[in-house]
Amino acid sequence: MSTPSESPATRMSTAVDGVEVLGALSPSRAGDFLSCPLLYRFRTVDKLSEPFSPDAVRGTVVHKVLEDLFDLPAADRTPGRAQAMLEPAWERLVAEDPGLEEMFPADGEGAQVADWLTSCRSVLERYFTLEDPRRLEPAERELYVETLLDSRLLLRGFVDRIDVAPDGAIRVVDYKTGRAPHEMFEAKALFQMKFYALVIWRTRGVVPAMLQLVYLGNGEILRYVPDERDLLATERKVEAIWHAIRRAQESGDWQPSPGRLCEWCAHRAICPAWGGTPPPLPVREVESDLSADESVD
Ligand code: SF4
Predict the structure, then answer these.
(1) What is the rounded CA–CA span in Å between residue 135 and residue 69?
(2) Containing domain of residue 266, as a range?
(3) Are 163 and 30 found together in one domain?
(4) How many domains does the chain have?
(5) Are residues 215 and 170 in the same domain?
(6) In-domain check, residue 289
(7) How far is CA 287 from CA 83, 249, 255, 277, in A?
(8) Ligand 1, closest atom to CA 265?
(9) How far is the CA of 279 from the centre of ligand 1 (A)?
């Protein structure tokens, strides 16, 4: 089971670098609340654990390989080297958390792990059809970013990769191991990227020139050129989400929002939309939080 991560910001008005903040929000948790306020509550307020999922862990392993690939000299960043890094990356993850192996039933474990590793290899292979890492020198990988808004709401998250061109232009890159969304859902996918762009703009004073989502599930790249108006609108949206979270915290009213997400939700058994009963709310609710799988889809 994956257990919820502890955060430095677990109470209202947590001091961060000597500044009192009202709360902290990451794109993942903001996305949870937008999709289903009750899911947000289960993950962030109740901090309920969730079973590991092969899809999510595939994302973790592939992200790790793509992160480490850039430690190699440029000429060595080949498909073969990336493939050779895959199994050791998985073994290191299992060594850190043996519970990961529970994803695969004990009876057919060997075959299931082998199939799953094959699926990871396909995803990695697809990466090389989209980019040539021998021609890239990222400025940052798995970068933790944060900024405090005037409202004292702390925004934070992990950016997969930042490329900086010789003229200083910034490209924010995020890898997704799933498939690119239908056009109708692109805005939702871009929210996370605009969130990061806002944080980078606020901390570096430069609006990123390009936001790039690399979908390794089907080999598509979604690109977006943000401007200041976009990022100001994102800031207003993030503030509005935060106010809605605060209202739910104060009222204790976390509404379920049943939809397609329920298919993957680990908490259906205790969800009223599925005939379940949520546990009593913890005595002291905590603020929104940053999850350890921030950059992993
Ligand atoms: S089962 Fe659906 S409605 Fe219930 S908490 Fe999960 S996502 Fe929300």
Answers:
(1) 12
(2) 23-42+138-274
(3) yes
(4) 2
(5) yes
(6) no
(7) 40, 8, 17, 22
(8) 6
(9) 14
